[in-house]
Amino acid sequence: MQPEDDDQSFQEPERRSGFTINRDTLVLLGALAFLIIAIGLTFLFPLGFGDQSQPTLVAEQPTTPGEPGYPAPTSAVVDNGYPAHAATTPNDSSEGSGYPAPNAETTSTSTATIEAEPEPTDQTTTPANDLTEEAAYPIPVGSPPAQSSAAPTFAPTRLTVTPRPITTLALSPTSAPTTPPDTPTPDVPKEPSPTATQTPTPSPTAPPVDVLEGNIRWRADQSPILLPNDVQLAPDAILIIDPGVEVRLGGGVSFYVDGAQFLALGTPEQPVRFVSDTPARWEGLFIRPGSYAVMENMEMRGGGAAGMLLFSDQSQVIIRSSRFNDNGGALLFNDSRLEVLDSEVAGNDMPYGAALDVVYTRGNGVILHNNRVGGNRLGDGAPNVRISNQSVFETLSVDIQGNLLRGGIDNLVLSTDGPLQGVVACNALIGGNMGLSLRTQTLQVPEAQLTVVNNLIDVHTPPIIPIYLKYGIGRGAASEIPLDMRNNWWGESSGPYDPEYNPEGRGDSVGDNITFAPWLTEAAACVPQP
Predict the structure, then answer these.
(1) What are the residues whose beta carbons fall under 8 Å from the beta carbon of 325, sequence distance 6 or more?
(2) Residue 499, Cβ density class (10 Å: 0-12 exposed, 13-18 middle, ≥19 buried)
(3) How many whole angstroms separate alpha carbon 514 and alpha carbon 321?
(4) Which residue has better confidence, 45 or 19?
(5) pLDDT tens digit string along 389-403?
């Protein structure tokens, strides 16, 4: 009987089954009903509050200027308390004192628009967006009283500014101001001004410059010629200085050759002399572009106050049998055709650069014959004579013969970034750290087409290397590109010292890239005596 009861109890739910709703179904139905109710309430109670009888669309508001509603962009009526910048009339009581336009002007177009506004119609109520005078932008403190809108309060065309003369301020000495004729002078005595007893301050003037124009000749019977101020030899002018003329320049005075011709033509017995007239040094001789200068048998002393005694830029300069002694500056030539013969640059104090510095940026030519450059006090690392070619494409031609070059970090430096050709012969390169140095910043340049022969290269300071110190071997020459230096005298018959190719040589050493054999066993006869 027990199994039968079990079957009946297992099948009892099937007999009672039918349409049943579980808990999940009830939750879903409740959510759906809530959504339907919410949507229904939205239609019954639309969004927005207030009087539903009034239209809510902005498009139904009037837009004509002067009528209630949102103002036109060019109207003078303000919106929400902030005025429209384009048409607001300053200090106009009929429209409210709005914020002025950036240029503070009322144009004719804006004035015509304001006069064309119709009179407002009588209404029993004021629209919500129509501001009263009290709600306008507040009048700035200090503004003038309001006026009628019939005429603007500011007329820009009548505003004129007369500049005050400044010549009296810059040129007149300090003094008490004068009283205008129509103003009565008070009788009350006044204390004297503290500045009344002071010396009037002189007005500033341009630096004095004496200009020489036309054809000028300085003769010996006019000597000495005093130059207390700077002198400009004007363009196209010609100055001829006869033998025996002495020109005395004041402290700091400069002489400018400005596109002119400067001819100092002295003789060995009667040289032309440029000297200082005071214990202070004069400045220098400056040759500007397009000039032509000849200095023959000329002496320059006591110049170079700022470190430059003679400077030439893009000109032609010829110096013959002249002497530059006891000066404080160097000789610099920039892009100038230069010829220096039988001259001396010695005993000078030169704090900047080489004693004789020649620089070319477009290729050119330089001639140095039978000159003596040495015994100068140079800055640290400065060579004695330096010639530079900074052009990569244009050729520099050099003719350097019979010169005595003594001292400097190097006696002679040739620096080139492009083609270099010419002759370096019969020179005495003595003293300092090195004799000849050939340098370049473009190692791909071709071999220099230089003939370097019959030079004396000796008496240079040995580097701190045992064998150099032991035999007194200095650095004779160094080159950064291949250089032919055969047939030169290195101070010893055994030739220059080279640790690889001539280790038994006791003359000054040679660096890499230099061909030195054969060498001279004694100094050439053309070399100047040290």
Answers:
(1) 299, 300, 301, 344, 346, 347, 348
(2) exposed
(3) 34
(4) 45
(5) 988 888 899 999 999
